[in-house]
Amino acid sequence: MHEVNNAIDQANREVGTRFDFKGVDARFTLDEAANVEISAEAEFQVQQMLDILRGKLVKRGIDTKALKEGNVEMSGQRASMQVTVQQGIDGDLARKIVKMVKETKIKVQTAIQGDKLRVTGKKRDDLQEVIAMLKEAKLDIPLQYNNFRD
Description:
The protein is an alpha+beta fold. Helices cover about 40% and strands about 25% of the residues. The protein has 2 domains: about 1-85, 2-Layer Sandwich (Alpha-Beta Plaits); about 90-135, 2-Layer Sandwich (Alpha-Beta Plaits), CATH 3.30.70. α1 packs across α2 (about 45-60).
């Protein structure tokens, strides 16, 4: 979340200095629940700001698959969009991943721990095989792997 906050600060600075946003009240705001509100005066400006945000997140090492974009809402003279930064794995996807791991017959154990999925095994090669299988699976969220003990 710290990197997301930095990316939003950089994006706000860029919007403030860009020529096509001069004199326009356009900004990004982040709340505690990892929701980013993009607000500007027109819908096309909101789309441009979304592209700026994506670029800043990529530079900070955050996958753009983690963004869940809402619809652009017009209210009077303002356009706004809610973008949610997904954190963790939801229960349905975690159960799907557990099922995929068990179907491979690799000797590892899986456990769902809140919004994380823990895979344990005796052999490092088995764990690396599970990581490779998950990378090939083309899931719709980015996965991060916290490595095991050495």
